[in-house]
Fold each of these.
Amino acid sequence: MKKSSAGSSGRGTTSHDPRKTTSGEQKTVPSKRKHRRSGKDTMETQEYQSEAGPNGAGEEKKIRERLMEFAERIKTIKIQSAGQLEETNITIQEIHELCLRGRERFMSEPPLIKTPAGICVFGDIHGHFADLSKILDKTGVPPKQRLLFLGDYVDRGSYGTETITLLVAYKILYPKHIYLLRGNHETRAVNRMYGFLEECRTRFGEVEGNRMYTLFSHVFNSMPLAAVIAKKIFCCHGGISEHIPYDITDIGLLCDTIWADPMTINKRFDGSPRGVSKVFGQDAINDFCDMTNIDLVIRAHQCVSDGVEATHDDRCLTVFSAPYYCQESHNLAGVAYVDTKLQVQCYQHKSSYDPIKQTISES
């Protein structure tokens, strides 16, 4: 894992900030305001709890032990060459239980998560499980580390099943130490076309694969859409919306939260080249931050060369956590750590399977 800053270059550029070195020097994302801690920045471990069933506490203990064994088994899968995994032997019964308990957990949370500072923020994963596992080895996992994921767990990569089941298992076990937001690939309209439906069918056969896909879809439909860290940092998958002044039920707002992109434009919002949602400019991000008393927007959704990229006068930070994306883009993975003083430290991770990035040394 390398420590670095996010450059202030415009959208689409791959140039490095002149103050950044490939050896991974650490610095903070610049801020024009002094952040103040809000509320408690520490939190005791809240582990898996649910209503005692007919068999009482003994049954709950068995459920917890079963979930912990599953999470440990998935986290320690052996990684072969080129990021391929050994056979994981995830069963239909395990997925069924994870999906039912995971959906129950997500349904107990509001669509907007409020969390203290002292948390690692991840961008897109896209089934890059081998790289995710190595990054988690560096950051730590719940309950020792608090994590916030900004969506897009599946599609593109080969191991969406391992990715989402591990994270959901952690969510069930340690609900206050990990938050999973919904991305645009956590929708049927997208993931039925870009790989996850086919992954389910390949693993479990067409009939059971369709059933597993439906169970996962129910989980995705229950995920929260955004998070606010210590009342000052807004996090979502896509971006802000011109519909913010209106009711949350406005479908445009929900769409923009998982689809919108920042862009250097001379207007607040404009049509997106994706054909969905909008792009937002400097004036839009300024208005949003001033209206909501937010200092920084952290979002994902776009592959950036350095894994992290600060734009819009350092008020918008893009984080992308899938390195060597689709085995085509020679990008690094990025993770942003928001410390208890609300300073943002950006870290980079190189993929072990990218022949170009292998030449970059880690610190």
Amino acid sequence: MGVLASRRPWTQFVATDNFKAPPSLPRLSRRFYRNVEYFQANYLMVFLGLFAYCLITTPLLLIAMVASFFGYRKLTSGPNTWKPKIGGWELTKPQQYAVGAAGSMALCWLAGAGAVLFWVLGATVTVVALHASFFDAEALPASDDPEQFPMIEQV
């Protein structure tokens, strides 16, 4: 799994002695971009952890996701021998997908997936922005390319 293979040690990720306020705005910008690149896999793990937390604490959403998954699996697996009819009309494969998607969206809406999505995205962006802004990039090992994140200076 490409991105997750580059995960940094959690002890380095949460080392509290490396959290410092940036001395200037150009350094903040450089620090932010360097940390986002360096800890990319860790930030992805934070997102996945928050998403798993939401699924565990919202059982109806978990049931909706499992039902949507198995509905999609039923539509895509095996030969197309199942011919559902609605009001005497036989549904084609694209129509079956449309009905499945509409049903999944309705289930997710009833389970509150929209609120969960915005909560997870908001919490992830907040955690990533705070960590990337305040974690001192100078404490990280030196980059191979010194011009990768050039210092922005005002003229």
Amino acid sequence: GEQALVGVLADRVHQVTSLSQTETETIPSVGVGWDVSLIKTIGKDHGAFIIVLDMEKIILPLVA
């Protein structure tokens, strides 16, 4: 298909961080309580969980 330029606007950013491959974990497929297909990976930073969303899977259906 054709490519589309898409922008995302955030109301607020609390913190920007980077995660290495060693700081990420696989996503459990059961017991989470939400659609894990929209999550790219899960990481931890200073004891807090960070969920990295798969923005392509979230936005692509909106512009298709």
